[in-house]
Amino acid sequence: GDVYKRQVSTQSTWGFNKMDSEVKGLDLGVLDNLIKEGKYQDAIKMCTTHIGSNGKTCAALEYRAKCYSLKNEHEKALSDIKEAIQLNPTGNALISVLQTNVDILWEYGQVNEGLKLLNSYVSKDSTGTISKKIEETKKRCVEDFGLPHDHPDIIKIESFIGWARQGGAKFKGIRMKYYGPDFRGVHAYQQIDQNEPFLIVPKNLIITPQSGKETPIGAQVLKSGVKVSWDYLVYIAIFLMWEMHNQQSKWKPYLDVYPRLVNGFPMFYSEYEKSLLKGTPMLDHISSEMEQLKEEYHRIITSVPEFKMFTQEEYIRNKILVISRIFYVKINGVTERIMVPLADMFNHYYEKIGQTYWQYSDKDTAFIVKAQKTIPKGDPICENYGTKPVSYTHLRAHETSLHLVCRLLLEKKKTKT
Predict the structure, then answer these.
(1) Model-level pTM greater than 0.70?
(2) pLDDT tens digits along 226-239
């Protein structure tokens, strides 16, 4: 909440002069203290009472919006701040409302929308305050996201976050961060307390093997009876590939941030990386698994010629990617393998495993992630994706090549003990 604690001259915390007619009867000092004490609901009640008696005022709406945002009720916050802007405030009140708008949109994961509105008011601000806020926000974007606000990957991330929210996902205190081409993670931008649920993804945004079986091509593969290994991986991969080929797919925002590179997996190592594995059984194992996947692809296209719409490379890449990101859960008592947007972008870093725990809630019909212990501000969100079949070639794409090589040898050692 420190982003909201700016001081404006001798006025209230957020730019409204305590003598302004529109805040008459609204004690800004009391509101400031309630917010500093974390009594957001009391402050909201105070603003609501004022609005009931005096009508909607810019000050009451802005204060209430800030409190809603601090409670992570961002939709309510945005509704209030938009109404405050529509009241056409002037002077410091206008500047304050615009700054609050961009701060709330920042928390909401839509910073470019806030910057766009700020830019439209620059010419009307003789104090330079709005220009300063724009530069501060741009700088913060680079620091927090790892990229400029207008970078194509940031635009894609914002689109994905908006898509997830519209689909009913709820998240608190986390945001995606860019690491490099095709690599990104999720970090805490505020402390997440122990046992606090910080991500809820509803069933309609979850991908299951059934999702793939219900596609036209998946139904043909199922009907053919062709033998495949780990069929749940196959059908989830089919769903993803089918949607990737559909330019009008409703899953496009998710697919736009879905990884495409697989060079972090042993089967796709460079010759130099493979040379590091000399003297281990790994090289033969990698070669054997690659041949098995090629044979599997050819069995499928022999049984279902239409499957040729997907290339061999595309099929192998997506099947490998799927196993690196699926969760094993119980849904109505039945074990399911599922992919969960945003949760499947958590890092898989062994030193921090145990940081979170997750489950599918039949009651809430949603996948819920909680903090198993307090997660400090700035930390990456790390997850154990659950027990899976041991395969040296299907290791996490969320780690560097160095970590992967070390883990390969560790996994090999564990299978012997």
Answers:
(1) yes
(2) 999 999 999 999 99
